[in-house]
Amino acid sequence: MPSLFKRSLLPKLRSFPLTADSVSILCGAAEFRRCLLEKIASATRRIYIVALYLQQDEAGQEILDALHAAKLARPELDVVVAVDWLRAQRGLIGAGKQPGNSAWYQEMTRTHASVVPVYGVPIQTRELFGVLHLKGFVIDDCVIYSGASLNNVYLHKFDKYRYDRYHLLHNRDLADSMHHLVQHGLVASKAVHRLDLPNLPTTRSLRNDIGDLRSRLKHAAYDTTAGTTDKAGLSVSPLLGVGKNNPLSRVIGELIAGARDQLTICTPYFNLPLAVTREINRALARGVKIDIVVGDKTANDFYIPPSEPFKVISALPYLYEISLRRFAKRHQRNIDSGQLNLHLWRDGDNTYHLKGMWVDQRYTLLTGNNLNPRAFRLDLENALLIDDPKSELQAPRSKELAEIFQHTRRIERFQDLQTLAEYPEGVAKFLKRVSRVRIERLLYRIL
Hints:
Blueprint: E1 16-17, E2 23-25, H1 29-42, E3 46-50, H2 58-73, E4 78-84, H3 101-111, E5 118-121, E6 137-139, E7 142-146, E8 162-163, E9 166-170, H4 172-187, E10 193-194, H5 207-218, E11 235-241, H6 247-258, E12 262-267, H7 274-285, E13 289-295, H8 316-330, H9 332-337, E14 340-345, E15 351-352, E16 356-359, E17 363-367, H10 373-377, E18 381-387, H11 394-405, E19 408-410, H12 425-436, H13 440-446
Parallel strand pairs: 3-4, 4-5, 8-15, 12-13, 13-14
Antiparallel strand pairs: 1-11, 2-9, 3-6, 5-10, 6-7, 7-9, 11-18, 12-16, 14-19, 16-17, 17-18
């Protein structure tokens, strides 16, 4: 892929060679849960779980119980759980005052003979301005990669699920690289403390340490010295990014800029950074066919039915729809020609959380990055870039895309999307007020 960037990162990326049979794509959240539990139970050396949160509910309990059982059966196992420091110490949004998951972690450590340390990683002093958004579970030499966190809906424990992507990559060098970053780049930091032990330090007391950690992470990268720059065969490159103009964001821009024929993008929250919008516009101008799959506003995890009392957080899905409508209006001609296809995903009252990109028939980006300003500047993000120059993964790649498109409908006209006048009264009133005081742009930057 020729790059249009003077300081291109893509050709310089070191990668780990893969074989086609070392990559598996799981079908659905329930299969993801079963696979994760099976891998935990059979682990012999290490289990490193990194997620935004591990929730105190039935599915979360199942995972934490499995980790304790594995550690009890094999005390030599290196078991680590890392979650966001701030997210773990508050309750669910809109659920009133709650102790947070940290109290549950402490109770589990207090009442079990085995010890599963749960580390809180603070990316900022306020959750609004940055969280731990790394993805990927390392179990022995396998990496389980998904954008999902760990709770009932992400793991399809009961009737509802939150749809994501689920990949298994069996590669020791990749697993070692991701393990090394968590162990030495996160857990070893003075800013990181165990949430499963009592008497936690205050976030305020950690301000200097958090600032130091964030500064270090801005210059950190996965260790790929065991990899190669040879681009002849199937391979995977781990990417890390936090802050403005980080390597992951730059590679995303380069991938879009290098697309020749076809580009598919998935994001649950349609709020594209300017750099991404600019490269999409350029790709359309040079004739690239583009498919963008977004969750319908009712499939957004912040959506609250109009029949329920209004909460400020429930306005977010409507903000994203407004952004999508503006984008569709600007590109109606491309939609009419079939060059641009905007797809809304909806499956009953389930929710949508897919992220990632497919570029031509070569690149597949697995990531938790929402392709929004927050992901490009505030949160600590990562990704796995699969390079497939010989189309060895074409069949599973096509199958995954077909499953994603199964529950989508194409937007034929920008008028297919609702306007402010059609929104519930509480939502419309709030959004009008936001627009009047001109903080809408700020909201798009941090949400």
